[in-house]
DNA sequence: GGGATACAG
DNA sequence: TATTCTGTATCCC
């Protein structure tokens, strides 16, 4: 096909080290200093900018092992501020969608778009998208363009690696010898959809590079692995085998789980934890307009704890689908009968709601409908919290207004500068 | 259908 | 002292 022929192309756009970019956007005083963002509970590094990478910091490193080094080197460190990142992400996605024929938000910082264009047009468009996002939102992105999602991701990665491309890579416009070199030197495990296990197994079969994978037998891959990996192989060959997915309005399950800043050892404290987590789950159900048929709760020690890993869980089939905070709390409290308290130091707990259905799908006249549910307590609580703040209302053990001691650590949190009036950035004009 | 596994970001 | 959280798809029984 001639380069000037219009074709359906997939654009993959992602925000360069998204969380650190958001932190810099709202705090220019960071300047050129390196930036790290930590996971929930300030546990490990989950985002680093180029300067921090140059200093040798690595994704996933436990914070306590590098804390000293970061301080010595004058690195800016932040707890993760998902409210900020979510808002910036939303602005990016709105803009991207306006360019797209089909659109899929893939994660908080990535999206796929389809656009029909010739290769030269695609290059111009990709650059325009990048510049538009820099100007109108203020975040840096890279754009990869190719015939399939997998190749578009690979093109994006290439755009990041090769500075001369200045953040934009149209795969089919690359010189063939460059593509060849890239495919033969890149390990198969670098490809989207090939995880560490898959890469190991492939290596055992002599499939080491992306080129090997691209040329592997479809039948063999299908048989020894899965349809998923077979689709990946097709996509490497330029065949669209993984379609853009429509936005999922309703989820299949929702989980609310957190690690504790301090271990929980008493039954009373765990009761309080479960009560709060169950109410969080109820809130999320109300927000998405769904009800749960099944709720499970679990608590566990740290995987690295001396004395071995301990976990307790319980599944409760609800008498009728519900989002009711009281019913969910009571169900989750059944976990307390299964867990042992005293010697065991629980490090995390969680609540999972599943068997989800849209609220109102079961008729209100259903004789099995729960009386709580017909009164929509979850929706009521949700709307009150929306109006009066997240701490305005709580049920039972979860109703306390103060921060409990076990609540996750976020000691280096930035301001939520785009979503809360009280936390607006301040500009000083001198 | 349920549980285990793999994967992603 | 200590290593995130959330969600989906597939395989296999």
Automatic annotation (TrEMBL):
Pfam families according to UniProt: DUF4113 (PF13438), IMS (PF00817), IMS_C (PF11799)
Which CDD domains does the entry link to? PolY_Pol_V_umuC (cd01700)
- Sorted UniProt keywords: DNA damage, DNA repair, SOS mutagenesis, SOS response
Superkingdom of this entry's organism?
A: Bacteria
Q: Note whether Chloroplast occurs among the keywords.
A: no
Q: Does the keyword rRNA-binding apply?
A: no
Q: Which InterPro entries match?
A: DNA/RNA_pol_sf, DNA_pol_Y-fam_little_finger, DNA_polymerase-Y, DUF4113, Rev_trsase/Diguanyl_cyclase, UmuC
Note the Gene3D superfamilies from the entry. Answer: 3.30.70.270, 3.40.1170.60, 5' to 3' exonuclease, C-terminal subdomain
Q: Where is the UmuC domain?
A: 10-195
The entry's function note states: Poorly processive, error-prone DNA polymerase involved in untargeted mutagenesis. Copies undamaged DNA at stalled replication forks, which arise in vivo from mismatched or misaligned primer ends. These misaligned primers can be extended by PolIV. Exhibits no 3'-5' exonuclease (proofreading) activity. May be involved in translesional synthesis, in conjunction with the beta clamp from PolIII.
The record's similarity note reads: Belongs to the DNA polymerase type-Y family.
| Protein name per its UniProtKB record | Y-family DNA polymerase
Taxonomic source organism: Rothia endophytica
């Amino acid at each position: 096909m001639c380069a000037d022929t219009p074709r359906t192309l997939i654009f993959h756009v992602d925000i360069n080290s998204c969380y650190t970019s958001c932190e810099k956007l709202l705090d220019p005083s960071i300047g050129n200093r390196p930036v790290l963002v930590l996971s929930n509970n300030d546990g490990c590094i989950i985002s680093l900018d180029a300067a921090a990478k140059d200093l040798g910091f690595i994704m996933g490193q436990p914070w306590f092992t590098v804390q000293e080094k970061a301080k010595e080197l004058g690195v800016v460190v932040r707890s993760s501020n998902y409210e900020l990142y979510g808002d910036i992400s939303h602005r990016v996605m709105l803009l991207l969608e306006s360019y797209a024929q089909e659109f899929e938000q893939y994660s908080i910082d990535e999206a796929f778009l389809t656009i029909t264009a010739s290769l030269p047009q695609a290059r111009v468009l990709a650059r325009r998208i990048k510049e538009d996002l820099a100007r109108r939102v203020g975040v840096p992105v890279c754009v990869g363009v190719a015939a399939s999602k997998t190749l578009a991701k690979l093109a994006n990665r290439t755009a990041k690696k090769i500075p001369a491309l200045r953040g934009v890579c149209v795969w089919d416009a690359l010189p063939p010898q460059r593509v060849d070199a890239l495919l033969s030197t890149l390990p198969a495990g670098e490809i989207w959809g090939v995880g560490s296990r898959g890469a190991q197994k492939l290596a055992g079969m002599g499939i080491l590079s992306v080129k090997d994978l691209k040329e592997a037998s479809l039948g063999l891959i299908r048989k020894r692995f899965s349809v998923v990996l077979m689709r990946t192989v097709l996509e490497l060959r330029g065949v669209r085998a993984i379609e853009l997915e429509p936005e999922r309005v309703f989820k299949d399950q929702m989980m609310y789980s957190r690690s504790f800043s301090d271990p929980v050892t008493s039954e009373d404290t765990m009761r309080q934890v479960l009560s709060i987590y169950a109410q969080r789950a109820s809130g999320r159900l109300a927000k998405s307009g769904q009800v749960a048929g099944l709720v499970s709760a679990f608590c566990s020690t740290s995987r690295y704890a001396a004395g071995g890993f301990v976990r307790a869980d319980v599944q409760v089939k609800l008498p009728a689908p519900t989002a009711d905070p009281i019913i969910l709390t009571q169900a989750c409290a059944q976990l307390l009968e299964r867990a042992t308290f005293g010697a065991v130091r629980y490090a995390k707990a969680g609540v999972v709601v599943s068997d989800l259905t849209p609220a109102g799908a079961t008729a209100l006249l259903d004789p099995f409908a729960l009386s709580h549910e017909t009164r929509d307590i979850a929706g009521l609580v949700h709307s009150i919290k929306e109006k009066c703040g997240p701490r305005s209302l709580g049920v039972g053990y979860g109703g306390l207004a103060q921060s409990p001691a076990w609540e996750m650590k976020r000691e280096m949190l930035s301001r939520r500068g785009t979503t809360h009036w009280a936390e607006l950035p301040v500009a000083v004009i001198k």
